[in-house]
Design brief:
mainly alpha; 5 helices; 124 residues; single chain; 0% strand
């Protein structure tokens, strides 16, 4: 009895090869929601909470929004990685999209570009 190969013809492990390309629209929606949530929280943190803190206001908004942004960025990271695998993004595109979640306003730009290219069937 011959052993079953552990890699698919594409070079990916069999379990991963079965997932690639499946459920891209659902993964794209999850990514878009998280990109917007992370983007809005980062803008609130950098443009509202931090200036208020350094103008003599309370420290609590920075702690609250910063913590929320940190935890939600972790979820954004996972959803972006899931979409990158399913849509077969390049490593460079994936890293750039992930970094865009750390720069105010850039997450919205990256989300639009990634959405447009993914819907067109192009690699990001």
């Amino acid at each position: 009895m011959a052993a079953e190969p552990t890699a698919a013809p594409s070079g990916l492990p069999r379990a991963l090869a079965r997932r690639v390309g499946q459920d891209v629209p659902a993964a794209l929606l999850r990514y878009r929601v998280m990109a917007w949530v992370v983007g809005v929280l980062l803008i609130a943190l950098v443009l509202v909470a931090v200036p208020v803190k350094y103008l003599g206001g309370p420290d609590e908004p920075v702690a609250l929004i910063g913590t929320a942004h940190g935890w939600l960025y972790a979820i954004f990271f996972l959803t972006a990685c899931d979409l990158a695998i399913r849509a077969r993004w390049t490593l460079k595109g994936s890293v750039l999209v992930l970094l865009a979640g750390t720069i105010p306003i850039l997450s919205f730009v990256a989300e639009r570009i990634a959405t447009r290219r993914t819907r067109a069937g192009e690699r990001v």
